[in-house]
Design brief:
mainly beta, twelve-stranded antiparallel beta barrel, two-stranded antiparallel sheet, 4 helices, 16 strands, elongated
């Protein structure tokens, strides 16, 4: 009796399985998520033969699926949105068809890259000092003004070629009651143009040719002295150098600049006023002087904060019989977009020029507040 019962149970289970297999394999094919869930379960491959056949059909012949069991609105979406399904695996994804092409043709515009950059710094500083005639420690009233413009126009093709151009112009004027001969005198007077053409050699090292030309705007005088000590083109200096340039760009661009080491440098001095020739190292009665030597020129800009900028220039030239050394330092404190304070410290050494004191060292320093603008 027990064996008869087990046999009938086996027949019932087999019949139900066969019936399901026949209904899923031979009736119109429908997607059944149970098959995929059973196939990808983690406790081993427990799927039946019919489920594996269905899964293989879903993957290799998805076009045979007549409808989607888990998405009853697909047919309605096709009618309302005029969409055509794109079949990708067991699911059907609607997509646009018959997309009309635009009537107007798209015009392609190719813009040539601009490798040039321009920047400028402008400042105008004022200082006024009044001292009454009966001031207990005496003194002299004075007025001063300093204007400065720095323009840069640089080329960099981001590959191997760099061409940097920098024009610096400064003019400071002082008027003091103590000087009864000269109504105005200059405190700072400079026109300097620097250009450098560089070809990349290795990473931040470049082969470089540099030219520096400088003179001043107007006559240089001293207190209560009618003599002229310098003038436009008196002197005029030109320096042409060949060497290696190292590009400095560190600390997240807070410290930038160039370091030029030139073992070959030509230095030319021209003095238009013959009376001033010996003052600038030119032989008496001559206008010009030619020298060959070596040069080091370092120009750096450090921005420790957004409103603080330190600009320094270290320059030295030597023809191995005399030496020139200049170290210009300007610290700019920017209070807002237009108001700033400048501190300048400028030591200089030149044992080629005529010495008027017991040392060849020279020093110029000033502190001012006024208008400043950068672009």
């Amino acid at each position: 009796m027990r064996n008869i019962i087990l046999f009938w149970c086996f027949l019932c289970v087999s019949f139900s399985t066969l019936s399901y297999a026949q209904s899923t394999l031979f009736m119109p094919l429908k997607y059944d998520s149970r098959v995929t869930k059973q196939m990808f379960q983690l406790d081993g491959d427990t799927t039946s033969l019919s489920d594996r056949v269905l899964m293989k059909t879903y993957l290799k012949h998805p076009e045979a699926v007549t409808n989607l069991k888990d998405n009853k609105n697909v047919e309605k979406m096709r009618e309302d949105e005029n969409l055509t399904p794109i079949i990708n695996g067991p699911a059907t994804i609607p997509a646009m068809v018959n997309v009309p092409e635009p009537d107007d043709k798209v015009e392609m515009v190719i813009t040539k890259p601009n490798f040039w950059t321009f920047s400028g710094d402008y400042s105008l500083q004022f200082m006024q000092n009044y001292i009454s005639p009966n001031w207990h420690t005496s003194g002299n009233s004075n007025y001063s003004m300093l204007g400065a413009v720095t323009l840069q126009y640089n080329y960099n093709n981001k590959q191997r070629i760099k061409w940097d151009n920098k024009l610096e112009m400064k003019l400071g004027i002082l008027s003091t009651e103590a000087d009864t001969i000269n109504k105005f005198k200059t405190t700072d007077d400079l026109i300097r143009y620097t250009t450098q053409l560089s070809l990349q050699a290795y990473k931040k090292w470049y082969y470089a040719a540099q030219l520096i030309a400088s003179t001043q705007f107007t006559k240089g005088r001293k207190n209560n002295d009618p003599n002229i000590y310098s003038d436009f083109m008196s002197p005029f200096t030109l320096n042409l150098s060949l060497g290696m340039n190292y590009v400095v760009d560190i600390w997240n661009k807070k410290l930038t600049g160039n370091i030029l080491l030139a073992p070959l440098s030509y230095y030319y001095t021209y003095v238009d006023r013959l009376a001033l020739a010996t003052r600038f190292g030119v032989d008496e009665g001559k206008h010009s002087l030619h020298d060959i030597g070596s040069l080091i020129n370092i120009g750096l800009v450090w921005k420790p904060a957004d409103n603080i900028k330190w600009e320094t220039r270290f320059y030295t030239f030597s023809n191995y019989s005399y030496a020139q050394l200049e170290w210009e330092n300007t610290i700019n404190f920017q209070f807002n977009r237009y108001i700033s304070t400048k501190l300048s410290f400028y030591p200089r050494f030149d044992d080629h020029e005529e010495r008027t004191t017991d040392t060849y060292w020279q020093l110029k320093e000033f502190l001012s507040i006024g208008f400043a603008y950068s672009m």
